[in-house]
Amino acid sequence: MCHGAETSGRKGDRAGHRQGRRQRLRRPAVPRLRRSHAPPDLVYLDRQLLGTYAARGTLEPLTDCIAKQRIDVSRYRPAALKEVTLDGKVYGLPEFYDNRVLLVNDAAVAGSGFTPRDLTDRAKLATAAQKLTVRTGSGLSRIGSDPKIPEFLPLWAKANGVQMLSDDGRTAHLDDPRLADALQCAKSLIDAQGDWSAVKAFQDSFDFFGEKNAFKQGQLAATLMDDWSLNVLANHSPNVRVSAAPFTDTAGAPVDWVTGSAQEIFGTLVQLEDRPAFDAAVRTVLKAQESAFTMPASPAGSEFKTAWQNAVNRVLSGEQQPAEALRQAQQEAQRALDAAR
């Protein structure tokens, strides 16, 4: 049984779990399941990778399990269930649900001449990133705007009108010129703040999950981020002034890339009327779900993700230009997709 990691249905959706051995697996460990004489009862796995192992026969469909355990799949949001469904068969049950929104450190933006909403305006992004960036000596002391690449390339793609993978999960669209434009736009934010190595080194110094997080320390003015980071801020930095805004496409319409339901994550935050900043941010996240999209399940989901992430890394390191890197990624991804047919 595979339980899709980083995903979720609705509150209390741990239905049908056996009280046996559970295992959270990294990608290389999954193929060993087939060779094991004592496989775990439960596997936690990134949904974007699930299709690869389902296609290889490493995972079995949950058709019988769902029926015998009387699991009501209607309790899961359709977007979450779609990601764990390949060729009409369900191979995993979603656990968490992440939305991607823009989080703004209001204290850092104050006095800059920009508003949180300005940071969703594509025409103002590079200028805002450069102005909000702070350098001390030869290094960074504050990142103006983090485009969150390579991780969030699918969000940038969708905002530029590109669906990176066909609905059936079998045809890559990585060589679409609009995707190269989107990647160039995201990279321009990095370039406006310094070279990638300096930005990455500074990011790696952040205490993302503690009391000295980047928002409280003033190390980050704005970033695209998973919605669970609001929980971190509310728990460790409740007095931080933070705003949330949806990412937008070239026409200004909101775009949200999700992996499944925010109800469980935000079950306590939505009651915090005494913290209006967080209350407003949570409501923004919930509203963003109305414009959400998911990445299709694919029999070569793992290889597809590796291809586009490697392409972005080559661009960030200066090894290739966006169009060249994505053409190479297209060939690599489509070769894997064709082999999985």
Automatic annotation (TrEMBL):
Gene3D superfamilies reported in the protein's UniProt record: Periplasmic binding protein-like II
Pfam families: SBP_bac_8
rRNA-binding keyword on record: no
GO molecular function, one term: maltose binding
Alphabetical keyword list: Signal, Sugar transport, Transport
Keyword Transport in annotation: yes
Biased composition (Basic residues): 17-33
Classification via InterPro entries: SBP (IPR006059)
SUPFAM superfamilies: Periplasmic binding protein-like II (SSF53850)
Any single GO BP term: maltodextrin transmembrane transport
GO cellular component: ATP-binding cassette (ABC) transporter complex, substrate-binding subunit-containing
Family affiliation: Belongs to the bacterial solute-binding protein 1 family.
Name of the molecule in the record: Multiple sugar transport system substrate-binding protein
